[in-house]
Specification:
Two copies of one chain form a homodimer. With 354 residues, chain A is α/β, with parallel strands linked by helices. The first copy, chain A, has two domains: 238 residues, Aspartate Aminotransferase, domain 2, CATH 3.40.640; 100 residues, Aspartate Aminotransferase, domain 1 (Alpha-Beta Complex), CATH 3.90.1150.10.
Chain lengths: 354, 354
């Protein structure tokens, strides 16, 4: 039985990653030990984390002289706090494109003053707002590159002279991008980078000099960089799965090939939404996400019928978030085009059956 | 090839847990999904975390009306910060029994004023100090129940009227204990509770009323309890491994049987240290740990020979921490007596070969 897993994260894991994970749990690299029980101080693990950091930088096209990659715990939610506690001095700018931006703003407000630069709240976050000219005295500008709940995604990032921070939890490595425009990006692993339990942070080294002093060690980027992600015991297995995921991306042909597939998958699904009269897209067309496709039924009376069809087709996790209603198909990097084709078949079947 | 894994954590994982982990990764509960890809909002995962919380309370003998169990991220190091930021108002008491206590103290000092109640630093933390009468106006008393690096462990906990907090990372569930004496205990999972990546926190509910206001949400015990450990995406797989580990403990006969085995293992090893003239124990005899056995060579000239023998016997991870030198055998719950017998054989072999 093949399940088509459209969950917003944790979500579909490629066969390559599943199989290699199992191999590692049985006997890591013929060491006689399981990857679940190797010491985080062992050469086996140091090799895993070094490779994971190197590949993260290689796949984002960043060099390891000017940038540091960290694998931390605590998810994007901890990054909401860390970005602010490390860098918020006088005032920071935040763009509000949905629930996750709002959570970042709320946590930063506990630390200091923030300015909401722009927002798409007026239309239930169905679009990416224009960015006005940004006050160059702000400490940094924070944005969410892809909005998992609303299905919107930045195509063009704001030009700014102040440090640019992005929560890329739901779209990192989904497309070719000039990552050097950013000073700090972070992403919880459970969407495009593996399983829940670790968070990739890439930080420009020159930013480390600007970190606020006297902040708790466990929240300090400087302390984590100085200790090479080993300030405390790292989540060994989640980091191993992230390494396997990065290796999988590389073996597929890198981000270029991944982007090509992602565009094919997204076009196929958006085309069905646009041509099937039973469905409406939620997000503004030019801001549509490659990762989370949000849509509603034109007439809610077909809800039960569509749910039964989804069950019949083994389609899992397409229920929309309560803030939007309707449906959301999360079509992250690892999800195959066959799963998207199945969903499209299911949507066509609904039309035929009416 | 069987490796005898004496690492201080991450460390040995039982066959039961390894096998069940692999089953879950292949096909969780015949759902057609891997446990690595189930949503944290799915009934499958909610069932996992509910069971893990229930079993944590059942095995510590605490009731779920007065106590809450949480599975968080960030390790004990994050708890050093959270305990202080949630509960340090005027002044808190800390007992200093080694490096981990010192780290807890350092992080708390960033938040407020602390009083070092007692310390065993004068003798390189080789003993557990007596606790003087404690000022009842202190916000709480924090201690480390077992000192991984130095191999000491509390046998009798201080009697106090103020809330008692314990870092039990390296000895939780190793012995029967009256956990109701504590108001808050925490433990990184990678020693007795599974793999690195999740931390068990058990907190007395009445303490939640005392939490400092206006603290960051991700650091608030109250917010985590209110959201049932789902304030942010929890580390699904590490929590699953913790559940399997708790189930394993229960199936072995519970903490009572685990303690019996732990005492047998520890006695066997300490007896060899005490009777073999080539070795000296490090910790004060009455404060010896059931979990981390620290010892040195009476004459360092045998170092290479002992290392070769350890290699020959497939003994892994017995190198002592640099603060103590010598050797440390971590003999956590899951480690079998056969591994301890092997280490004892190896130590006897050294004596015979000299």
């Amino acid at each position: 039985m093949q399940i088509h897993n459209f969950n917003p994260g944790p979500s579909y894991i490629s066969k390559f990653v599943i199989e290699k994970s199992i191999e590692g749990i049985k006997n890591y690299n013929n060491s006689g030990l399981s990857v679940l029980e190797i010491s985080h101080r062992s050469s086996a693990f140091l090799n895993i984390i070094e490779q994971a950091k190197e590949l993260s930088l290689a796949l984002t096209g960043l060099d390891n002289k000017n940038y540091s990659a960290l694998f931390l715990q605590g998810g994007a939610s901890t990054q909401f706090l860390m970005t602010a506690i490390n860098f918020l001095k006088t005032k920071a700018g935040y763009i509000n494109t949905g629930s996750w931006s709002e959570k970042a703003i709320k946590e930063a407000k506990n630390i200091g003053t923030i300015e909401e630069i722009s927002s798409s709240k007026d239309k239930n976050f169905s679009y990416i707002p224009e960015t006005p000219t940004i006050d160059s005295s702000l400490d940094y500008l924070h944005l969410t590159s892809n909005n998992t709940i609303f299905g919107t995604q930045y195509n063009k990032f704001p030009a700014t002279t102040i440090p640019l921070f992005a929560d890329m939890s739901s779209d990192i490595l989904c497309r070719e991008l000039d990552y050097s425009k950013f000073d700090l990006v972070y992403a919880g692993a459970q969407k495009n980078l593996g399983i829940a339990g670790t968070t990739l942070v890439i930080i420009k080294n020159e930013l480390l000099e600007k970190i606020n002093t006297a902040i708790p060690s466990i929240l300090s980027y400087k302390d984590h960089v100085e200790k090479d992600s080993l300030l405390n015991t790292p989540p060994v297995f989640p980091i191993y799965v992230s390494l396997l995921t990065l290796q999988w991306i590389k073996e597929q042909g890198g981000v270029k090939e991944i982007e090509k597939r992602n565009r094919e998958k997204a076009e196929l699904l958006y085309n069905e939404i646009d041509t099937n009269p039973l469905f409406n897209g939620f997000a503004n067309e030019k801001d549509r996400s490659l990762m989370n496709v949000t849509f509603t039924l034109a007439d809610e009376k077909h809800e039960q019928k569509f749910q039964s069809l989804c069950d019949e087709y083994n389609i899992n996790g397409v229920k929309g978030h309560r803030s939007v209603g309707g449906y959301r198909a999360s079509i992250y990097n690892a999800l195959s085009i066959e799963s998207v084709e199945t969903l499209v078949d299911c949507m066509q079947k609904l039309k035929q059956s009416i």
